[in-house]
C-alpha cells in the first residue's frame, strides 16, 4: 500500500475530481453565513444547501471540496474512541442535477483502487447498499465487486427531514483480523456493524427525492449526488495507524503535549492517552474556530469554544500541566495544516493571544471550582447525604467547566456518589434552552424549479447608468407561477429584464428601488426589491399599477437620490473596514454589513472592547481619506490576479473565476460587486454614531455620511446651544467650565448633607443606645432609627462596637417603602456561639427579605417595613 501524508491524500482527492470536470470549492468558514439552522458548518454538504434546494444555480454543477467541519453533539466521547473528533475534514464530490449513479460509482472505485490514485486492494473494500436500490448493486457488481463484498442494509437511506433525500451506498475498508475486537459469531462483526475491523471510509448519497412537508417522497426535478469521505480516517489507513490520533494530523500535537507534561508519555497509560487525545483534538477545533472569527463566550459558538478550552485545560492538569499551555500549540496546528490552510499560521499570534487570555481566566476559575467542590464534598459527608446533588454537579460543569467525570472522580475519592439523574435533568434543560434559541427555519428547503431552469442572460448596467429605455421583460411570475401578463390586482410580481439599472441586494448593499414606465410615459409599477434569481439574474419585485407583459419593453428608472446615498455609504464602509484593520490589527475581519441610504452598519470580529481613543483614530483616518480626494478604481480580473493585487476577500463570500475589485488608491483594495462613488470627496464627511458588542467577539459600528452626517452634527450643535442656555453660558465653549462649577457645588452640598446626617445619626445613637435589654444569652439593644440607609446603620454599629454598649445590636430603618436590618454581635459572644448570620436569617422574614454576613456583622433587606417591629421582637426571643 502507498504511504501518503494527509496533505497528499487531500490533494489527490481534489485533483481526481478536478480532472473529471469538478470545480474545487475552497473550505468555507466554520461560522455559517445566512444559515440560522446551524451553529457550525458540520459537513461538506452544509455549504452546498443553496445549490441543492435550487435557490442558487452554481456556475459548474460539478463541485468538490475538502471542508473543515465541527460537530459538538457528544464532546464527552472525544478521546475515548478511535475516530471521534470535534473538528474534522470532509472530502466530498457533488453533482447538482448533472451526473448520477452510473458516473459517480465508477469514479469512486477508480479513485480508491487505481494505482494512479489511492491504489487500495479491491479485496479489502466492502460495499453496503439500500435493499430496494437494485440499480446501485448492479453497478458495483459490473465493476468487479464480488457479491459477498456487497451487503444490503435498511439504514442506507439518507433523510434529514424536509428536503432532498435518497438511498446511499457506503464503502468500508477491511483493516484485517488483527484489528477485530469482536468474536467471529458476533452479529455486529460485518461491514457496517459496530466493530473496529471494518472502517467506513466513504458515503455516496443518491439524492433523488423531495421529502415534502406532507411527509411524502416525490421525485426531485433534478437528481443530485452528495458524497462524504472523512480525511482523518483515510489518513489512518495510509499511515497504518490503529486510531486517527497516530497520524501526521495529531501526532505532532501529542508529542508537544508530552514535552509540556510532567514526564507523561503517550501509549504508556490508557487514562493518560485519553487526556493526550482530548488536548490534540480540542486545540485543532479551538484554533480553527477562533481563526474563523468565533470567540469564547457564554452563549452559542462562544460557549462551545470556552467549553473545549476548559476540557483541554482540565486534561492538561491530569498530565501535570499546571500553567497556560494550549496557546503554545497554535503554531503546531498551523504547521500541520499549512498546505491547505495557510491563514492559520498567518493569524497564529492573534489566535494564541485569545486562547492565552481564556486559559489564564479559567485557571483562576478552576481553583475556585476546586475549592467549591471540596466544600461540597465536605458538606455532603457531614450531612451523610451520600451523594452530591445534580444541580451542584451541573453548576460545577456549567460555571466552572468541570466535566462530570472529573466531579465524579473527586467525589469517588471521598467515598460519595453523584446524583447522575439530577445532573442529566439540568443538562437537558440547558440543551432545550439552546434549541429554543436556534431558528426554526428548515435545515434545507424543498427544491423548487420555478426559476431554476430559466437561464436567459440579463445584464446589470447600474454601474454606469441609473435609467434605461427599452428594458425587455424576459419573464414574469405572479402567485408563484410563470405568466405572460401580470395584473395589478394579482399582487406583487417578480420580473427579469434583458438589462436593468436596478442593483440586486448583495454584499450588504440593499437593493435599488424605482419606477417602471411604459412608452407613453405612464407608470406601470414600482420596483420595491431586487434579489438574485438562482442563475444570477436580477429578479425584481414589482408593485403594479398597470398590467406588465412578457416581451414588452419599458423604461427603468432607479431612485437616483437614494442610490447616490447608498454609494457614499458603501465606499465609506470600505474605508472603515481598512481603518479598523490599521488601528486594531490585521486580525480584524468583517462579520457582516448593511449599507442603506441613511446609514451604514459594519460588524467586525474583535477580541475585547474598542477604546474611545481607537474609535477616534478610526474616524479620523476615514475622514482623512475622504479629504485626500482619492479616485475610486474598479477592475474586473481573474481571482488570482485580484489576490496578487492584495484584494481583501471575505470568508463568507464565494467568488467566480472573474471578480470585480474596488481600489481606493493605496489605502484599500477589496473584492466587491457593489456600487461606489467615483472619488472619496463625494462622501463629504464620515461620522460614527455608535459602537458596541452585538455577540461573542463581534462588535458593531453604525455611522452616517454626507447630509446625514451634517444632520447629526447640526442636531448635536442644537443640543449644545440648549445646554448653554440652561447653564447661562454666554458661549458654547464655556459649557465645560459651567459644568465643573456645578459639580463642585454638588460635592459641597453632599459634604454638608453627610455632615448633617452624621449629626442626626449621633443624636439618635444617644437615644437608642440608652435602652439596653437583658436576655438569657446577653444584653441586647434593638431599635428602629430614622437614617437614609444601610451605610448609616453600619456607622451606628461602629459606634456601638467601639463603646461596647451591649452584647448584641439589632437596628433597622425604613426608606422609600423598603426595610434595612443590621445585626452586630460582640467578639466574646461570637466565641460563645452566637452568630450575627444566624440571627439575621431568623428575623429577616418579618421584613419580607433575607440576608447574611460574617459571624460578628450581618445585614438584610426587605420589602415590608411594617414588619420591622416584629423583627426586633423576634431578636429578643432568639436570645432567650
Automatic annotation (TrEMBL):
- Protein family according to the UniProt entry: Belongs to the class-II aminoacyl-tRNA synthetase family.
* One Gene Ontology MF term: catalytic activity, acting on a protein
**Location in or out of the cell:** Cytoplasm
- Where is coiled-coil annotated? 732-766
The cofactors required by this protein are: Zn(2+)
A Gene Ontology annotation in the biological process aspect, one of them, is: alanyl-tRNA aminoacylation
Q: How, per the record, is the cofactor bound? A: Binds 1 zinc ion per subunit.
**Cellular component terms, GO, for this chain's entry?**
cytosol
Q: What is this protein called?
A: Alanine--tRNA ligase
The entry's function note states: Catalyzes the attachment of alanine to tRNA(Ala) in a two-step reaction: alanine is first activated by ATP to form Ala-AMP and then transferred to the acceptor end of tRNA(Ala). Also edits incorrectly charged Ser-tRNA(Ala) and Gly-tRNA(Ala) via its editing domain.
Name the NCBIfam families for this protein. Answer: alaS
Q: Which residues bind Zn(2+)?
A: 570, 574, 672, 676
Q: What InterPro entries would the database entry show?
A: aa-tRNA-synth_II/BPL/LPL (IPR045864), Ala-tRNA-lgiase_IIc (IPR002318), Ala-tRNA-ligase_IIc_anticod-bd (IPR018162), Ala-tRNA-synth_IIc_core (IPR018165), Ala-tRNA-synth_IIc_N (IPR018164), Ala-tRNA_ligase (IPR050058), Ala_tRNA_ligase_euk/bac (IPR023033), DHHA1_dom (IPR003156)
Name the keywords, alphabetized: Aminoacyl-tRNA synthetase, ATP-binding, Coiled coil, Cytoplasm, Ligase, Metal-binding, Nucleotide-binding, Protein biosynthesis, RNA-binding, tRNA-binding, Zinc
PROSITE patterns, sorted: AA_TRNA_LIGASE_II_ALA
Quote the Pfam families the UniProt record gives.
DHHA1, tRNA-synt_2c, tRNA_SAD
Note the Gene3D superfamilies from the entry.
2.40.30.130, 3.10.310.40, 3.30.54.20, 6.10.250.550, Bira Bifunctional Protein, Domain 2, Threonyl-trna Synthetase, Chain A, domain 2
Q: Which gene encodes it?
A: alaS
Q: Which HAMAP family match?
A: Ala_tRNA_synth_B
Q: Does the keyword NADP apply?
A: no
Q: What is its EC number?
A: 6.1.1.7
The record's SMART domains line, in alphabetical order, gives: tRNA_SAD (SM00863)
Task: Specify the taxonomic lineage.
Answer: Bacteria, Bacillati, Bacillota, Bacilli, Lactobacillales
Superkingdom of origin organism:
Bacteria
Entry note about domains: Consists of three domains; the N-terminal catalytic domain, the editing domain and the C-terminal C-Ala domain. The editing domain removes incorrectly charged amino acids, while the C-Ala domain, along with tRNA(Ala), serves as a bridge to cooperatively bring together the editing and aminoacylation centers thus stimulating deacylation of misacylated tRNAs.
Q: Which organism is it from?
A: Paucilactobacillus suebicus DSM 5007 = KCTC 3549
Q: Where is the Alanyl-transfer RNA synthetases family profile domain?
A: 4-715
Q: Which reaction does it catalyse?
A: tRNA(Ala) + L-alanine + ATP = L-alanyl-tRNA(Ala) + AMP + diphosphate
Amino acid at each position: 500500500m502507498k504511504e501518503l501524508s494527509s496533505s497528499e491524500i487531500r490533494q489527490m482527492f481534489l485533483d481526481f475530481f478536478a480532472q473529471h470536470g469538478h470545480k474545487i470549492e475552497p473550505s468555507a468558514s466554520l461560522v455559517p453565513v445566512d444559515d440560522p439552522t446551524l451553529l457550525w458548518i458540520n459537513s461538506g454538504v452544509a455549504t452546498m444547501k443553496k445549490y441543492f434546494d435550487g435557490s442558487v444555480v452554481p456556475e459548474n454543477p460539478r463541485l468538490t471540496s475538502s471542508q473543515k467541519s465541527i460537530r459538538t453533539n457528544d464532546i464527552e466521547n472525544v478521546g475515548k474512541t478511535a475516530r471521534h473528533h470535534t473538528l474534522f475534514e470532509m472530502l466530498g464530490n457533488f453533482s447538482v442535477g448533472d451526473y448520477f449513479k452510473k458516473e459517480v460509482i465508477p469514479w469512486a472505485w477508480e479513485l480508491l483502487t487505481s494505482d494512479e490514485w489511492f491504489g487500495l486492494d479491491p479485496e479489502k473494500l466492502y460495499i453496503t447498499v439500500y435493499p430496494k436500490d437494485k440499480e446501485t448493486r448492479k453497478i458495483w457488481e459490473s465493476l468487479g465487486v464480488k457479491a459477498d463484498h456487497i451487503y444490503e442494509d435498511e439504514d442506507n437511506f439518507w433523510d434529514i427531514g424536509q428536503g432532498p433525500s435518497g438511498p446511499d451506498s457506503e464503502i468500508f475498508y477491511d483493516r484485517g483480523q488483527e484489528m477485530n475486537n469482536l468474536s467471529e459469531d458476533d452479529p455486529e462483526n460485518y461491514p457496517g456493524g459496530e466493530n473496529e475491523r471494518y472502517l467506513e471510509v466513504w458515503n455516496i448519497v443518491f439524492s433523488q427525492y423531495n421529502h415534502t412537508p406532507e411527509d411524502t417522497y416525490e421525485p426531485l426535478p433534478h437528481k443530485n449526488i452528495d458524497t462524504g469521505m472523512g480525511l482523518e480516517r483515510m489518513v489512518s489507513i495510509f499511515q497504518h495507524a490503529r486510531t486517527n490520533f497516530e497520524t501526521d494530523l495529531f501526532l505532532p500535537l501529542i508529542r508537544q503535549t508530552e514535552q509540556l507534561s510532567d514526564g507523561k508519555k503517550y501509549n504508556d497509560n490508557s487514562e493518560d492517552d485519553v487526556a493526550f487525545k482530548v488536548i490534540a483534538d480540542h486545540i485543532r477545533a479551538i484554533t480553527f474556530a477562533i481563526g474563523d472569527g468565533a470567540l469564547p463566550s457564554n452563549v452559542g459558538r462562544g460557549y462551545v469554544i470556552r467549553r473545549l478550552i476548559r476540557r483541554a485545560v482540565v486534561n492538561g492538569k491530569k498530565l501535570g500541566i499546571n500553567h497556560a499551555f494550549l496557546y503554545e500549540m497554535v503554531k503546531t496546528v498551523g504547521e500541520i495544516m499549512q498546505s491547505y490552510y495557510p491563514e492559520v499560521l498567518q493569524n497564529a499570534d492573534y489566535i494564541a493571544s485569545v486562547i492565552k487570555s481564556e486559559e489564564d481566566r479559567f485557571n483562576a476559575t478552576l481553583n475556585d471550582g476546586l475549592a467549591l467542590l471540596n466544600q461540597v464534598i465536605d458538606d455532603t459527608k457531614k450531612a451523610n447525604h451520600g451523594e452530591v446533588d445534580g444541580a451542584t454537579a451541573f453548576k460545577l460543569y456549567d460555571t466552572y467547566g468541570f466535566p462530570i467525570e472529573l466531579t465524579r472522580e473527586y467525589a469517588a475519592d471521598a467515598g460519595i456518589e453523584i446524583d447522575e439523574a439530577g445532573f442529566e435533568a439540568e443538562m437537558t434543560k440547558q440543551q432545550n434552552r439552546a434549541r429554543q434559541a436556534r431558528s426554526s427555519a428548515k435545515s434545507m428547503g424543498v427544491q423548487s424549479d420555478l426559476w431554476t431552469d430559466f437561464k436567459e442572460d440579463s445584464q446589470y448596467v447600474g454601474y454606469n447608468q441609473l435609467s434605461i429605455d427599452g428594458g425587455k421583460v424576459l419573464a414574469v411570475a405572479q402567485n408563484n407561477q410563470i405568466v405572460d401578463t401580470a395584473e395589478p390586482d394579482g399582487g406583487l410580481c417578480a420580473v427579469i429584464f434583458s438589462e436593468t439599472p436596478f442593483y440586486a441586494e448583495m454584499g450588504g448593499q440593499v437593493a435599488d428601488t424605482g419606477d417602471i414606465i411604459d412608452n407613453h410615459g405612464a407608470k406601470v409599477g414600482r420596483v420595491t426589491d431586487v434579489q438574485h434569481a438562482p442563475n444570477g439574474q436580477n429578479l425584481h419585485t414589482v408593485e403594479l399599477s398597470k398590467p406588465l407583459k412578457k416581451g414588452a419593453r419599458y423604461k427603468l428608472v432607479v431612485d437616483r437620490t437614494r442610490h447616490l446615498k447608498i454609494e457614499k455609504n458603501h465606499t465609506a464602509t470600505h474605508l472603515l473596514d481598512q481603518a479598523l484593520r490599521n488601528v486594531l490589527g490585521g486580525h480584524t475581519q468583517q462579520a457582516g454589513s448593511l449599507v442603506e441610504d441613511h446609514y451604514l452598519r459594519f460588524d467586525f470580529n474583535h477580541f475585547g472592547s474598542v477604546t474611545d481613543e481607537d474609535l477616534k483614530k478610526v474616524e479620523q483616518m476615514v475622514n482623512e481619506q475622504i479629504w485626500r480626494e482619492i479616485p475610486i478604481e474598479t477592475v474586473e480580473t481573474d481571482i488570482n490576479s485580484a489576490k496578487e493585487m492584495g484584494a481583501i476577500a471575505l470568508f463568507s463570500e464565494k467568488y467566480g473565476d472573474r471578480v470585480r475589485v474596488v481600489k481606493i488608491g493605496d489605502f484599500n483594495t477589496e473584492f466587491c460587486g457593489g456600487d461606489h462613488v467615483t472619488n472619496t470627496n463625494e462622501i463629504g464627511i464620515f461620522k460614527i454614531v455608535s459602537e458596541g458588542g452585538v455577540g461573542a467577539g463581534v462588535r458593531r459600528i453604525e455611522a452616517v455620511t454626507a447630509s446625514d452626517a451634517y444632520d447629526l452634527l447640526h442636531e448635536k450643535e442644537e443640543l449644545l446651544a440648549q445646554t448653554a442656555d440652561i447653564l447661562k453660558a454666554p458661549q458654547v465653549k464655556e459649557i465645560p467650565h459651567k459644568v465643573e462649577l456645578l459639580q463642585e457645588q454638588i460635592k459641597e452640598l453632599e459634604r454638608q448633607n453627610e455632615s448633617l446626617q452624621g449629626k442626626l445619626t449621633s443624636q439618635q445613637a444617644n437615644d437608642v443606645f440608652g435602652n439596653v435589654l437583658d436576655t438569657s444569652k446577653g444584653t441586647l439593644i434593638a431599635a428602629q432609627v430614622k437614617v437614609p440607609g444601610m451605610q448609616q446603620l453600619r456607622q451606628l454599629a461602629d459606634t456601638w462596637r467601639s463603646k461596647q454598649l451591649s452584647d448584641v445590636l439589632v437596628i433597622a430603618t425604613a426608606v422609600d417603602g423598603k426595610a434595612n436590618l443590621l445585626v452586630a454581635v460582640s467578639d466574646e459572644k461570637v466565641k460563645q456561639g452566637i452568630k450575627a448570620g444566624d440571627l439575621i436569617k431568623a428575623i429577616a422574614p418579618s421584613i419580607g427579605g433575607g440576608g447574611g454576613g460574617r459571624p460578628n456583622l450581618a445585614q438584610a433587606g426587605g420589602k415590608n417595613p411594617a414588619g420591622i417591629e416584629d423583627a426586633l421582637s423576634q431578636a429578643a426571643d432568639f436570645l432567650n
